[in-house]
Amino acid sequence: MKKFPLKLDKSLQFRKEQKAFRELSGQKNLVDFSSNDYLGLAKNNQIFENAHRILVENDILKNGGTGSRLLSGNHALYGLAEEKLKYFFNSEAALIYNSGYDANLGFFSSVPQRNDIVFYDELSHASIRDGINLGKAKAYKFFHNDHEDLEQKIIRIKKTSIDAIIYIVTEAVFSMDGDMPDLRQLAEISEKYGCFLVVDEAHSVGVIGETGKGLVEELGVSDHVFARLVTFGKALGAHGAAILGSRKLKDYLINFSRSLIYTTSLPPHSVATILAAIQFLETDGVLEILKLQNNIQHFNSELEKRDLEPLFIKGNSAIYSCVVPGNEKVKQVAFNLQLEGFDVKPILSPTVPEGKERLRFCLHSFNSEEELNSTLTVLKKEILS
User: Fold this and answer.
1) Are β-strands 93-97 and 241-245 bridged in parallel, bridged antiparallel, or unpaired?
2) Half-sphere exposure of 59 (CA within 13 A, CB side)
3) Spatial distance between the Cα atoms of 80 and 275, rounded to a whole number of angstroms
4) 360 domain residue, yes or no
5) 23 belongs to a structural domain
6) Quick check: 385 pLDDT over 70?
7) For all residues of the chain together, what is the average pLDDT?
8) Cβ(227)–Cβ(198) below 8 Å
9) Which DSSP letter does residue 2 get?
């Protein structure tokens, strides 16, 4: 085996020196405050059994996708699932991708064209940034949830690039901060300046709204949104993602989105699980969503009671971030919480800016009030003692 390249070895050493070295760890039998399985559907037996039933009823007993969707991989369940998704999310069309990362990569690398402009929230997910970097459009970030900054940037760019097509990109729930934008105001700005609004709903589906359709549907602004990304590996407990939009957008992505065209399709079981999860969300899922939303309210009230609010980034989703500056410090507090039985993960720089390192608490429908209270008791002791 050849020697490891010196530049790469130095990068690893630097990460270790910065206390930012990442390692894969096995699952521990701790109270879950770290997974994106907000409704517990990844472990739901009803969905598991219904996914198998869907496969049998459609006489699809294959282990793999067998090829890309444009070759041999577009099995019948794709059509069923995409029809279900477009009606559930009130969209003209839906196109399933292998993951949310693939969907954002495929969309942003192919849709915005040369001389187009993309304005994206500065806290947008890495998959959005990576997709933009692969494309040919010019891209500028705007301050987080700062719509005045966005509008000023649009006005400036329109003076010099009169004919440019402008895309505005945000997330319905930001994955590291757990806060939400004012989507109604973003929709108004998009309409005012003739822009195309794109919303990543990865962390709002299954969490926001009575039936978990996400923030766009909850606010009734779907007619003002050009494209939505919904993922199935978080609250739906499955795998994959979809781009929601017009029929023409779907046709365009099928023809030009490289992360869709040049990859093997999802295996039938994954698509059957998506179908089963959406069916569950429409029925028994309503109760799980209510449990989650009650836990969110309880967590907020406990933060206030314990005078912990100033340490947390304000939000009202399933994600709560407690800022603990310094990689070494936040790792130690997380370790101590894990010793007490709570699976709370530290988020280190450079994933978040230096000085904004944090503990990320993910709430679930299956967390008990006792678990919520106990973890905050330990946290207060660790942080304020």
Assistant:
1) antiparallel
2) 0
3) 8
4) yes
5) no
6) no
7) 95
8) yes
9) P
Residue 269 contacts residue 342 (beta carbons within 8 Å): no
Contacts of 56 (CB under 8 A, 6+ apart): none
Strand 227-231 to 241-245 pairing: antiparallel
CATH number of the domain to which 380 belongs = 3.90.1150.10
286 burial level (CB within 10 Å; 0-12, 13-18, 19+): middle
Q: What is the token pair recorded at 115?
A: 């001389």
Shared domain for 171 and 187, answered yes or no, is yes
The pTM for the full model equals: 0.94
Burial of 292 (0-12, 13-18, 19+ CB in 10 A): buried
Contact indicator for 208, 219 with CB cutoff of 8 Å: no
Q: To 10 degrees, the CA torsion angle through 103, 104, 105, 106? A: 50
Structure tokens, 79: 């059509």
Asked whether the beta carbons of 370 and 377 are under 8 A apart, the reply is no
| Separation of CA 247 from chain center | 24
CB environment 18-40: b (16+ within 10 A), e (fewer): ebbeeeeeeeeeebbbbebbbbb
Give the domain extent around 122. Answer: 45-282
**Domain total in the chain:** 2
Closest CA to 289 of 313, 316, 318: 318
What six digits make up the tokens of 25? 């760890």
End residue of a domain, out of 232, 261, 282: 282
Final residue belonging to a domain, choices 282, 309, 327: 282
pLDDT, tens digit, for every residue of 241-293? 999 999 999 999 999 999 999 999 999 999 999 999 999 999 999 999 999 99
Nearest to 290 by CA among 353, 192, 365, 362: 365
Q: Virtual CA dihedral for 353, 354, 358, 362, nearest 10 degrees?
A: 20
For the chain, the straight-line distance linking the first and the last C-alpha, in angstroms and rounded, comes to 51
Phi and psi at residue 382, to the nearest 5°: -70, -40
Q: Number of C-alpha atoms within 13 angstroms, CB side, residue 218?
A: 18
Query: Which stretch of DSSP H or E encloses residue 264?
Result: none
Residue closest to 111 by CA, chosen among 259, 274, 234:
259
Residues contacting residue 143 through CB under 8 Å, at least 6 positions apart: 122, 149, 150
Tell me how far CA of residue 89 lies from CA of 85, 290, 339, in angstroms.
Answer: 6, 19, 41
